[in-house]
Protein 1
Amino acid sequence: MSENNGDGSELIEFYASEALTCPRRIYFRLKGYPERWPEFVKVRLNQGINTHNVLGEILKRRFGFELEKHLVLRSNKLGLEIHGRIDAVRDFPIEIKGKTSLPRTPYDYHLAQLNVYMRWAEAEYGYLYYIRLHEEPMKVINKIDFSNFPVVKGPNFRAFEVPYDKALFKETLRHFYQVKRAYEKERAPRGWRSFSCKFCPYRYLCFPDDE
Ligand code: SF4
């Protein structure tokens, strides 16, 4: 979770998937609180893994992408590292998101996550693929038209082409740094208290009365 920064201070590890997400949730993860995933989220996570696997294989075999590439970006000055696992990367990254419903525009925190990958890959563009979750992902994936790759199309599928955003990367670093400060002071930051709480493994800490 953390290591030494060389000057004796602690180097805190964040995940790219935590970029611009609820700071309180990140804090609880850093503090090592056990995760308690709601049952319906576990089902979705499993469906998401299947979808990633099937679509990832196509990107690898047809388009020469490397899958699940591990990355680390370190800032000694801020005393933090960002770790990530890019779904698919070649000269640009692709991030795949399995959803029960497809958004009209990308979520801010998905853009921030992809932006970290673009920073690492030194890519000018990256792609966000939203795909509707299905028990049999091939039923959705078979209908995808790859002829205009990487801007692919299909029912139950939405692709977004996203340019690298330097200001967004700075904002992401600032966000992580604020959580780091909270962690060091042992003071849990305020949480989002939004729709995302439904899917949060630390809900039991924020809403103990709902247990
Ligand atoms: S339950 Fe909501 S406010 Fe609490 S940590 Fe999770 S996302 Fe944040």
Protein 2
Amino acid sequence: MNIKLNYWLIFRRTDMFSIQSLIENIRQKISLQMVNSFEVEIIISRVTGISRASIKARIEQHIDATHAQQIIKLCQQRAEGVPIAYLFNEREFWGLSLYVDERVLIPRHETELIIEYCLEKYALDSLVRCIDLGTGSGAIALALAKNFSKWEITAVDQSKSALVVAKNNANNLQIDNVQFIQSSWFQQVEQKQFDLIISNPPYIAENDQHLQKGDLRYEPYQALAAKHNGLKALQEIILSSPHYLVLGGMLILEHGYDQGDAVQQLLKEQGFSSILTHQDYASLDRYTTAIR
Ligand SMILES: C[S@@+](CC[C@H](N)C(=O)[O-])C[C@H]1O[C@@H](n2cnc3c(N)ncnc32)[C@H](O)[C@@H]1O
């Protein structure tokens, strides 16, 4: 679906609009289904600097034509389907502000559960050699690096352009205990001994209808979809991990809500123990942990 909305008012630079009249104008042009009220408020807040919480109280406040036009353009792009995170090139992950664009997956809040789990399992001053397979924006690697300053973290991605984004995020956040490698999973990784392997790999089946809907249409296909009904990347990682994990080391894999059993089976076949599938905020299977 690519809806083009080319019937906006042309403003004079001197025109002023109340927030209320602007919202009414947007509502006349775009249905709630295409841009909901929450999103309109986020857009107004980001453009004007007025906090979202105080928009309703300041609904009569006037804003200038340049801001009004910017807000309308962004609402138009959102109506066409562009995710909010790509509109503003920003996503918050575990308290870190990450730059994101169409080169990388938008990190999901559910993935923060993996960071929470690591914080429960490892002491802040622990020394852990960790690898994040398929780092994308760097979300997992950078959140771990920020919390565990002594960890040696390797972050790999097959996508060169994703790594550019991840490295920029590391620089912006002044994080220097992550090294980035372009590699298909472990292929270019020379280090053989890790204490912890983490991955949120692509796991959506190639024929899944969700790939044609919502934000997913704008995210990199190779970050989302995998062959073998979505299991190929998980299979490859589980098969290689025993060669790179020390005895007693941990593997943490994010996966689809209906892939917990398959992942557990694959881990058993590779001799992993203490295999546990964990649920997300919606009580759906989200990630599995196992010990070599
Ligand atoms: C679901 S995204 C996860 C991104 C990030 N870790 C996160 O949680 O937001 C999967 C990532 O795996 C990468 N990827 C896909 N196939 C790969 C492969 N064979 N080797 C390395 N990375 C791969 C994609 O480029 C993408 O960045």
Protein 3
Amino acid sequence: MKVTIRNEEEKDYRIVEEITREAFWNLYAPGAVEHFIAYSIRKHPDYLPELSFVIELDGKIIGSIIYTKAKVVDSKGVEHPLVSFGPVSILPEYHRQGFGRKLIEHSINEAKKLGHKAIILGGFTYHYHPYGFVGSKKYNLAMPDGKFYTGIMVLPLYEGALDGISGTIHFSEAMYPDEAAFAEYDATFPEKEKKVLPCQAKFEKAVSEIDTTSYE
Ligand SMILES: CC(C)(COP(=O)(O)OP(=O)(O)OC[C@H]1O[C@@H](n2cnc3c(N)ncnc32)[C@H](O)[C@@H]1OP(=O)(O)O)[C@@H](O)C(=O)NCCC(=O)NCCS
């Protein structure tokens, strides 16, 4: 079994979107939109191809991670560039076998090598705490509504990387693509049954949970 991680190339886009759709289907909402987010990111200037990777098993792509620019804007209006990743996907039949970890750790190391300050992202804590991500509250980085959420996490990439940086987090607008164009795009994929499942409610709860941790 040969595992390869390499940069995503244009020829991989569609297969990555297919995998992303499979990985996210009915997970956080009935159906999925994350494949459309992947598609939209590639067309946006915030896309970071040098940090976007696919993982292959014996030459077959089984997962991907896509990075975009993000930023923190401080109280003086100064912008501090960070990076973010997502969607990150592994085909469901390969879950919990360490492939996601390999892919995420590889991308973190590459982001370090490129000199980025920190990675900021949203998601379940159990997916990202294993890599050292902590609530953004620890660094006084709030969402634009001024709140700190447990599901918004940050990983400084070197000692002191976030010293003196606080403010409001702005993910790329590429993460919020035009909903009107979605149905037409999704219709180019095979039909799949949309279901309401209990895991979707858990996600709603997780993303709206306020971080009450004291990081003193
Ligand atoms: C998230 C995802 C990319 C992880 O890939 P994976 O190959 O299954 O992950 P790994 O096997 O490398 O797991 C690494 C660690 O992450 C944590 N983890 C991953 N999936 C988890 C789950 N469902 N529940 C709890 N912890 C989990 C565990 O600590 C795990 O280590 P362990 O298996 O030794 O306990 C994959 O599950 C996926 O594609 N999920 C659907 C899409 C998704 O949710 N993406 C993230 C959006 S926030």
